[in-house]
Amino acid sequence: MKLDKIDLKIIETLQQDGRMTKQNLADAVALSPSACLERLKKLEQSGYIRGYQAIVAVEKLVPYSAVLVEITLENHRAEDFRKFEHAIGNIPEIVECYAVGGGIDYIVKFVTRSIEHYQEIMDGLLDSGIGIDRYFSYFITKQTKKTPYPVSRLLSD
Q1: Domains in the chain and their CATH numbers?
Q2: Could you count the other beta carbons within 10 Å of the beta carbon of residue 102?
Q3: 106-146 pLDDT, tens digit each
Q4: CA atoms 44, 46, 47, 49: torsion sign
């Protein structure tokens, strides 16, 4: 499926408000509701839109600690990476993981009840034999920015 400017406008509009009515979406992208709905269904079916989520104010529900962790593995065989990635896939407190280049292997984001809870999980990972060589923890004190990906900027020349 080749995307045009209207498809991109639909995506960007929904990134800002995924709960808007189909009528408001159609108005925002200057299409009839039926044409807009047809395009939206194609975007969903083609995998351009993966789903819709609520952005929850977790801090209003419960105190928590968020930690970014740089992780380097002992060995760098494909099997070692698979083993690590499989192991962390089963830990709900690990909410993001990025394989990266440049001296470390992964950047992982933990969201835990406390710093002590984070350390318990990290100790368990170290004891599990999944090949962690070293890690560096960075405790998040304040989120200063988080926005949707700038789709139209990424596509511009």
Answers
A1: 5-45 (1.10.10.10), 58-139 (3.30.70.920)
A2: 5
A3: 999 999 999 999 999 999 999 999 999 999 999 999 999 99
A4: negative
